[in-house]
């Protein structure tokens, strides 16, 4: 029996004991407490399970106590009826008024809601649940307020803090990005995360569990373009209800251009006008600068129009190209000046339309130098875009026409000259045309080598022979190369023989032969020359004829010379086989006006030789004519055989204009031997009158007077001879006396003047032996004589 009583006593004791110790602090300390986090100013719910331990049992009462307060702050009494009608009783203090017990559908989820939590609400709450039959239950809840961490601080890689309102960076696209976010404090220990565009990008805290400061370092190996113009967020969160403490940091990201393109179609560019080429770039921040390069060099002096928006840059260049730019690269370079290495370029090869640049070349198949008789092909090499569509060929400035029979074939850029002749020598140029224009090549000198041939005008000559005189014959040939060898032959009735043992002097294309004809019946001499190309085909011929006097000059005209004075010009006649020269004689045929008191009868019609002029050509100039006087002019030719007959007589002339004083003066003193005749004729007249008077009076006196007269007449002649001796060599031809004496001599001079000076001297001294021989300069024969 006592065994049954013991449990009963134990239960009663336990009940009593439990009731007794339920509200003691000791009891409360031992009760496990569930931690509930509350946030200042927000509502919090403290759970209290009111489920009866036995289903049949019923919930009776709930009491809420806080901390060690003996008085409940809230109660719910269901003793009078069902739970729904239970009465709520909040104590009239602040906390009680903000509290309300929520009976849930599920009794296990019943809870006390406290509105607008204050700092004083923090503490340990006890919920005591009484049932009808089951024993009372107690639950403890530890309400703790959440403490937000400090505002996050952001630091850059250098450890410098990013201040509020300022942004982080700049970061280079593709480069590393580093930012560190730090918070201190916070209960519970907060989480620290990095966000971009509401996407978590780093949720790993880098500091240790125990450190006071919580750090999250954001590291990006390659800063993505998507970070451009955006911001990052560092969020510190202690509790979801409390919300995050957020720090937003704008970041500056520099972008390199990711697109650059020359958008204008790559058409042919003309050199004649500037053309717009457009380039566009995008993707750069700040906007890229566009630069243009041509053939690796920046383009200068070009008009460039720019268009810049946020990250787009457009550039239109007004491009002036030259022919040399053809095939070169045009580069459009986009460069972000703030981004080291942040440049991108587009390049294209440009094609420039330009007029032809042409040059004439000998075709590679042609041997140079070109020899007569070979076929020659000239090529007109051109550089042009587009290709030339037309060619023309020029020879010495004349258009070359197609002549198939003549072997001249200008076909497009090829000029073929078949079996080329010397006359095709000269300067060749070609002209090519395309859409951009046309241009001439510089002249190409086509030199044609050819065998010697007689120089024009020297093919057939007549050489006069003078008995016992050696023949001097000159042969003139043309050839390229000019280096020639000469050989001479002569024809007799017996045949053709080479000239041997004669003196031959060769100088370039001229051979001078000194030949002593041994046989009398020699017909002709032939001169042959040979060079590298070949032998002369036709010899230069010299017919040997007996020397004759020359023919008279023909077609003489008298005209006003361009610089004043008069000019006489004739055409030379045949020279009779010898060198001929020309003589001009001027006579004064003025009818003198009678001196006062003297009759004029005796002088009427008398012509006085004023002067003679000698020239290598029948051309003369007269300066020294006196105005108011009348002159007779006569021209004839002379050679070693004699003078031409009859002389050409020109119509008489009268000069009206005054001759300049210095010319007159010179003429009076040196070149007018005839003027000396005036005192002579006046004296003459006086003498006749005196003689007539004397004869009438006395014969002896007359004889004496006659003797005196003769003496007087001789004096001027003697004086004249003296004058002659004083004359210089230049005046020689103008002197009447010198002329008549020097006739033979000077003719020889002219024959010789075409030879060397030494030879001239030799020859003349052999021909003539005169005491006052004066040589004319060798060059004299080449110019017109002027008087
Ligand atoms: C919460 O309490 C504070 C002070 O205790 C008070 O200023 C505030 O108005 C209350 N808020 C609400 C919503 O009752
Ligand atoms: C309540 O909970 C907090 C946080 O866990 C703790 O620091 C505090 O000591 C607790 N208070 C009591 C009375 O248990
Ligand atoms: C931050 O910027 C805002 C507006 O841009 C300005 O009103 C504010 O004063 C700035 N704060 C600081 C600390 O510079
Ligand atoms: C932010 O994210 C949304 C959705 O993920 C996206 O549509 C939007 O383009 C993003 N914005 C930026 C600036 O990346
Ligand atoms: C063609 O060339 C030949 C030989 O040189 C010449 O005789 C002829 O006149 C030329 N024809 C024309 C049309 O020039
Ligand atoms: C020279 O003689 C040859 C033969 O005797 C003859 O054929 C030729 O015509 C002659 N030439 C001259 C220029 O007389
Ligand atoms: C020379 O010119 C003059 C006037 O200047 C003129 O009277 C004379 O007829 C001209 N003589 C000749 C030959 O032309």
- Rounded to the nearest angstrom, the radius of gyration is 69 Å
CATH topology of the largest domain: Immunoglobulin-like
Report low-confidence residues grouped into runs of 5 or more: 1-21, 598-605, 659-687, 700-787
> Please, what is the average pLDDT?
79
Highest-level CATH class of the largest domain: Mainly Beta
Number of beta strands: 53
Overall domain count: 7
Give the helix level as a range of percent.
10-25%
Estimated structural class: mainly beta
Strand content: 35-45%
Distance between the termini: 193 Å
Shape: rod-shaped
Biggest sheet layout = 6 strands, mixed
Q: How are the strands ordered across the major sheet? A: 1-9-8-3-4-5
Helical segment count = 8
Fold topology:
Elements lengths: L1 H20 L3 H6 L2 E6 L5 E4 L11 E8 L7 E4 L9 E4 L3 H4 L1 E4 L8 E4 L8 E9 L5 E9 L7 E4 L11 E5 L4 E8 L6 E6 L2 E4 L10 E8 L10 E7 L6 E11 L4 E4 L6 E2 L4 E8 L6 E6 L2 E2 L4 E6 L3 E8 L9 E7 L7 E7 L2 E11 L7 E2 L4 E10 L4 E6 L2 E2 L8 E4 L2 E4 L8 E9 L2 E4 L3 E3 L1 E7 L5 E6 L5 E10 L4 E8 L2 E4 L4 E5 L2 E6 L8 E7 L9 E7 L7 E7 L5 E6 L9 E8 L19 E8 L3 E4 L7 E10 L2 E2 L4 E7 L6 H11 L5 H21 L1 H28 L9 H17 L4 H11 L20
Parallel strand pairs: 1-9, 11-17, 19-27, 28-37, 38-45
Antiparallel strand pairs: 2-7, 3-4, 3-8, 4-5, 6-7, 8-9, 10-12, 12-15, 13-14, 13-16, 16-17, 18-20, 20-24, 21-22, 21-25, 23-24, 25-26, 27-29, 29-33, 30-31, 30-34, 32-33, 34-35, 34-36, 37-39, 39-43, 40-41, 40-44, 42-43, 44-45, 46-47, 47-50, 48-49, 48-51, 51-52, 51-53
Bound molecules: 2-acetamido-2-deoxy-beta-D-glucopyranose (7 copies).
Membrane topology: Single-pass membrane protein
Keywords: Disulfide bond, Membrane, Signal, Transmembrane, Transmembrane helix
Organism: Tribolium castaneum (Red flour beetle)
